[in-house]
Amino acid sequence: MNYISRRKFVKYSALASATLLIPDFLKGFESTGAYSNHGIDKLKLSGKKLIIVQLSGGNDGLNTVVPYRNDIYYNSRPEISISESAILKLNDEIGLNSEMSELKKIYDAGNLCILNNVGYPNPDRSHFRSMDIWQSGSGSDQYLNTGWIGRYLDSECVNCKNPYSAIDVDSSLNLALKGKVKSGIAVDDPKKFFMNSSQRFFSDIAESPKHFQENDSTAEYLYKTLAETISSSDYIYQNSKIYKSQKDYPNTAFGKNLKTIAEMVISEIDTTVYYVSLSGFDTHVNQTGRQGRLLKELSDGLAALTDDLKSNDKLNEVIILTFSEFGRRVKENASGGTDHGTANNIFLIGGSLNKYGIYNAQPDLSDLDDGDLKYEIDFRNVYATILKNWLNADDRNVLGKGFDYLDFI
């Protein structure tokens, strides 16, 4: 016979009793499907997905996509430049960092588009401020407390009953997924998220049953919020078990998170936007080895994700966007690293790209802005294009004004 402690018996008894104390208003709430049926009014997407990969710290774009035929590049970086012999050449002028052989395979397969010189007017070199600008989709003179994906949910998901339309694969939700009314949800591990949500749900009721019995607006709001959370966690956990990947992802937190995303996409969870981060790119000191390790982790992870999606006929339904809050200065510093810069390159990966390869010209290193690259493409042009042409959304409503569309999709 198995025995449990008196403490556990009391606790479980309280939790069991709590299920009998569900207030009347929740019965009506359950009947809508938001709690028991996991109901959700789907976004206008036709199943298309967006995966956003944030490279935190300011990745050095010039040592990622390398202008190996440019003398100014080598003269500006006598210690940290990548030698031509090590470059994974994409054409006669530029190539990928030597650690990105797996990403080169995606490029060769026609599933990678590289945009150069992406930034915004009057750039800010603060990590926090520039990241806020990218996550909110604001101008450098605007301060917004909502993110561009959050406002997308506000605009296109008015009747959605659960918060898993956008998932940040992390322990906390970043600004990009926060809307005024609707927001995404942070899920770093579906099973842990489910167990924690379930425990919190019933513990809150057990500890304050009389409060939850009060049929007032505050209690109703709190109870519905708890119900939505446990409903979402149950839905994500149960459906994420449909497909379990056997692909070889990097044995890191980032690799694990990409694998989680692949399993959710392939399991056909009703999530439109996934967000994941890889940190450590603030390379002021001894950049070469550190950035190389990070770029290999990024390259290997994106390759595993892309292969997973392609093997399961999902790559045509997905666009992967990588970005960093800024690039680095052209000239190396005295510590074998680089300091905060401005414009940068971004990657777009997918099976439905209209254009692949090198989208636009490489940076002009002979025409700098006080030692920094000049931006050519406003990052909000990229957002507007994805919103309109991929997510079928009103990009002007989300971004606050119109931006030029690009033709990569």
Cα distance spanning the termini: 63 Å
Which structural class should the secondary elements be placed in? alpha/beta
Averaged pLDDT, please? 86
Task: Indicate the percent of residues in helices.
Answer: 25-40%
Radius of gyration: 24 Å
Shape: globular
Strand count, sense and barrel status of the largest sheet are:
9 strands, mixed
Low-confidence stretches: 8-40
Q: How much of the polypeptide forms β-strand, as a percent range?
A: 5-15%
Q: Can you count the helices?
A: 13
Helix-strand topology string: HHEEHEEHEHHEEHHHHEHEEEEHH
Number of strands: 12
Describe this structure in words.
This protein is of the alpha/beta class. The protein has 13 helices and 12 strands. The chain has helices at residues 6-18, 24-31, 71-76, 101-108, 127-136, 148-156, 190-207, 209-213, 217-240, 253-266, 287-311, 379-389, 395-399; strands at 49-56, 65-66, 88-89, 95-96, 112-119, 166-168, 185-186, 273-279, 318-324, 344-350, 357-358, 377-378. The strands form 2 sheets. Strands 1, 5, 6, 7, 8, 9, 10, 11 and 12 form a 9-stranded mixed beta sheet that branches. A 3-stranded antiparallel beta sheet has the order 2-4-3. The longest helix is centred in the C-terminal third of the chain and has 25 residues, at 287-311. It starts with 5 loop residues before the first helix and ends in a 10-residue tail after the last helix.
